[in-house]
Amino acid sequence: MTVPPSIRIETIPEEGLSLELPLDAAWLGAVLADATMRATPGAASKARVRLDLSDKDVILSGSVHIALTAECVACLDEVALTADDEFTLVLSPAASQRAHRPHEEVELTADELDADVYTDDTIDLSHWLREQILLAAPVHPRHEGDCPRPLSPTVPVNGGTVREIDPRLAPLMKLAKKE
Ligand SMILES: [Zn+2]
User: How far is ligand 1, taken at its centre, from the CA of residue 33, in Å?
Assistant: First the structure.
């Protein structure tokens, strides 16, 4: 299993460091297992990360693209989904936590910005990417539109079929039956 690398702070060049990381299916599977999901076999998942130094802080930004398979909350069949998320974290050294507040200097909007700490002069990408993947994973995975195996019976309307899934359809179906 290939695990996302740990980056020593002193190896980050002044101009920053950009990485494209294919996410190993076995590693991704272990991460998603905590959310009772799994990596979709044969589908590529990846992360882009960028590390920038700001004094002693490291600004870790990037995106994750993951292909996962989960149980649909509507029909309980398996559903394959992709999830994308972008993130920006400001990581301060743990020792100087709260000692100084350089965050005002960072030009990012507050909702994009998340502050945390790093330890041992190292940015452990497997730790941070794991968090971002679990944040990106859908809380209520379900098929888009109609599920392949509806729980409720279908009702014929004007030659077509309407499923009794959405109660908002009921008045329409009454109208259709009158005609
Ligand atoms: Zn479904």
Answer: 20
The CA distance from 70 to 127, in Å, is 22
Q: How far is the CA of 145 from the centre of ligand 1 (A)?
A: 9
Block residue for tokens 């029909």? 75
Q: How far is CA 119 from CA 7, 47, 55, 71, 159, in A?
A: 11, 22, 16, 37, 65
Number of helices (H), then strands (E), belonging to the chain: the values are 3, 10
Is there a contact between 135 and 146 (Cβ–Cβ < 8 Å)? no
Instruction: Find the 69 Cα to ligand 1 centroid distance in Å.
Output: 12
pLDDT in tens, 49-73: 999 999 999 999 999 999 999 999 9
Single pTM value for the model? 0.73
